[in-house]
Write a structure and sequence with these properties.
alpha/beta, EC 4.2.3.153, 4HFCP_synth, 376 residues, 4-stranded antiparallel beta sheet, dihydroneopterin aldolase activity, TIM Barrel, 4-(hydroxymethyl)-2-furancarboxaldehyde-phosphate synthase, globular, FolB_dom, GTP Cyclohydrolase I, domain 2, binds glyceraldehyde-3-phosphate, 10 helices
Amino acid sequence: MTRLLASVTGPEEAAIALSGGADIIDLKDPAQGALGAVTPAVLAATIAVVAGRRPVSAVAGDLPMQPEAVVGAVDARKAADFVKVGLFPAARAERLAVISALGELARDIRLVAVFFADGDPDFTLLGPLAGAGFRGAMIDTIGKGEGGKAEGGKGGGGLLAHLSIGALAGFVRTARDLGLMTGLAGSLEAPDVPRLLVLQPDYLGFRGALTSGARGDAIDAAKVRRMAGLVGAGRAAVGAADPVASARPAPGSAAEAAFDRIFVRDLVLDMEIGAYGHERGRRQKVRFSVDALIEKIATTADDIAEVYSYDLITDAVCALVEMGHTDLVETLALDLARTILSDGRVFEVNVRVEKLELGPGAVGIEIRRRRGDFSG
Ligand SMILES: O=C[C@H](O)COP(=O)(O)O
């Protein structure tokens, strides 16, 4: 189950985050940087206010990749349930030295490594992190922008401006296979939430989206509540049972009118596909068109939490394409249909996959499936 982590500056904001429904209270001072640390005294005061109702995590600080500095900062915050340690840009050997220096503390303190999507993330370090006894790994951004816009030359923009859904899916899968808890963060906004919930990380982390306006503002209970609702609604939809899966409505029938249709059409991507030898090791253009019957949208819907986003379809296509070579368009179409139907709000899907470079016209496959088709 995906939880909501709220980054707060101290006991006052911790109380606000708790009242808004945050699952994890994370301490950081955004004025000091992406992982600006609060003092041990602020940490102690916050732990007292939270009083065991939620886990409390603390960041170690924006630190150079020097073992002594990082070990000292982590040790000073061992009162927290988790300590987040940033893997800032540095040579691989320097990051490895920090990871191995933390091995001893990892026996007593639950450590979470923070990769930065805009700070040369090296996911081959996941193995060494698990080996050193880290409990978790997450991705954040160093630059804090909004809506994917760059800010102050720091490479700002949200998480998805830096890493594709496919890359994030790979991170979550690899970390989970290593037994690490996983988190995703980085100037996340409401429309990012359903897209990231599909990956089923252990938590999504927020700060900027919980504030009342500008980045320097305090967090706001109503914003926390809204985001908590969004995380809760989205996670219920991922893999939820479909009560109507067994009753396919006839096209044009009254039953079909009980659904709405969402679509992504003519999405053309370069990818490796084909069973012939000459189709291997090269990319060719493939066009995807997806239509899906979804639960009827409420007449009052005006919030991303109340709708099934077409981004989920686009992301599913892109993630499959990124997985590498596929021999058959049929396999691709079936995998795509299966993925889209794993969301309980989707009743039926029509997938068309066309190779555009093999002849004078397009060649491909079109399939129609409903959720029940993939069970058993
Ligand atoms: O760990 C989560 C971060 O504090 C997220 O902060 P942000 O939403 O401002 O990027």
